[in-house]
Amino acid sequence: MGKYFGTDGFRGEANVQLSVEHAFKVGRYLGWYFGSPHRRANIVIGKDTRRSSYMFEYALAAGLTASGADAYLLHVTTTPSVSYVVRTEDFDCGIMISASHNPYYDNGLKIISGSGKKMEAEVEEQIEKYIDGEIAELPLATGEKIGRTVDYQAGRNRYIGHLITLATRSYKNTKVGLDCSNGSSSSIAKSVFDALGAKTYVIHNEPDGTNINRDCGSTHIETLQKFVLDNGLDVGFAYDGDADRCIAVDEDGRIIDGDLILYICGKYFKENGQLTNNTIVTTVMSNLGLYKALEREGIRYEKTAVGDKYVYENMCENGHCIGGEQSGHIIFSKYATTGDGILTSIMVMEVMMRKKVSLATLASEVEIYPQLLKNVRVSDKEAVLANEAVRDAIAAEEAALGGDGRILVRKSGTEPVIRVMAEAKTDELCAQHVDAIIDVMRAQGLVEADA
């Protein structure tokens, strides 16, 4: 990770860690980088519903046009729609203004390459150098070489049409609930499900600039659970702020997280000869219950570091067709290069409609193990992981669990924190094993005094 760009773009509190000056310089660099004396760069911009997204949109557009690029504005849209438009039309790159599931006062800049993937790290490194004045000032476009902005809602409409074409069955008489998180999906999701014939019930689709992700969406799934039960719906789907993740709720109000979605869709693909390499890509945080269910079905799996970036890298390198995270970032590589919450909903609906069974029935085949994760503040993460007593404690707790659970101890990529996680048959066992490891860390003097 760089100084400004992390695994999911340049993110921070608006006008604190991420300012309009930053956005202007990002636009300046990208407009110059993708342009040439004989060719004007074409770059597409999307944004979520945060109050600050408007000022960042204009700052980016100013930077791009000042460098001679044309900026195509999708306006409020989803991250996967920007990825789709970039890779299917003649754009050099895309920029999504969003901080995903973060509170409204945060924002971020996600840069998407011309192939619809996250921008290469080398380009981000050069942008950082330009922001910090380590690169000479870039030439400004003059005269007819100055760029322009173009209203490009047509691109978003084509993405909606693309989603609709992916469904092979009508959703007629199916009652579907959508929690749009007062975010990007507010402008897209309902029209997709209405077009497919569903009886669509929507909540949290009235963004005001400050209510994105507030007590709603995929990070506050309890709201949708109640809504599904109160209205007798067949299924519910909750998205995050930029709609690149999806968590479902079955007709009984049970949470169907990313692990269960991977199982349901992966098994369906296998049954229909569509599961490339007979493999699903997961992260190390996926539940042991998922792995046991996949083994029972004869489906292979691979594990990556936490982050959809790493999941997609593995899928590309090995030709796998489905992968994702517990949090609801699911990637279907036949249709997308990034997690897409609305696409994930359509894939789940496809299984339900084709098999003519409820979501609860589909998910009942997986026994999800209780999981407990505790974050421990430390002064030296590497010292903790290298400590012999800690390593012995981890091994001892793993041995005690046998095949009925697992231990995962890893460092945070951004904070002075060690994450200690256990899965076991009961919540009590999870707490017992996690606390035993933390007690050893504390006894070794590795835990900060106030932790």
Widest sheet, order of strands = 1-2-6-5-3-4-7
Question: Total strand count, please?
Answer: 19
Q: If helices are DSSP runs of H or I spanning 4 or more residues, what is the number of helices? A: 15
Instruction: Please give the alpha-carbon distance between the first and last residues.
Output: 26 Å
Rg from alpha-carbon coordinates? 23 Å
Task: Give the overall form.
Answer: globular
Could you tell me the strand content as a percent range? 15-25%
The level of helicity is: 25-40%
For the largest beta-sheet, the strand count, sense and barrel status come to: 7 strands, mixed
Report on the structure:
The relative contact order is 0.10. The model has no long low-confidence stretch (mean pLDDT 95). 38% of the residues lie in helices and 21% in strands. The two termini are 26 Å apart. It is of the alpha/beta class. It has helices spanning 20-33, 53-66, 79-88, 121-131, 153-166, 189-195, 222-230, 258-271, 288-296, 308-318, 341-355, 359-363, 381-386, 388-401, 427-443, and strands at residues 5-6, 9-13, 42-47, 70-76, 93-97, 106-113, 149-151, 175-179, 199-203, 235-239, 246-250, 255-256, 279-283, 300-304, 322-324, 330-332, 371-377, 406-411, 417-423. Helix 3 (79-88) crosses helix 5 and helix 5 crosses helix 6 (189-195). The radius of gyration is 23 Å and the shape is globular. The longest helix has 17 residues, at 427-443.
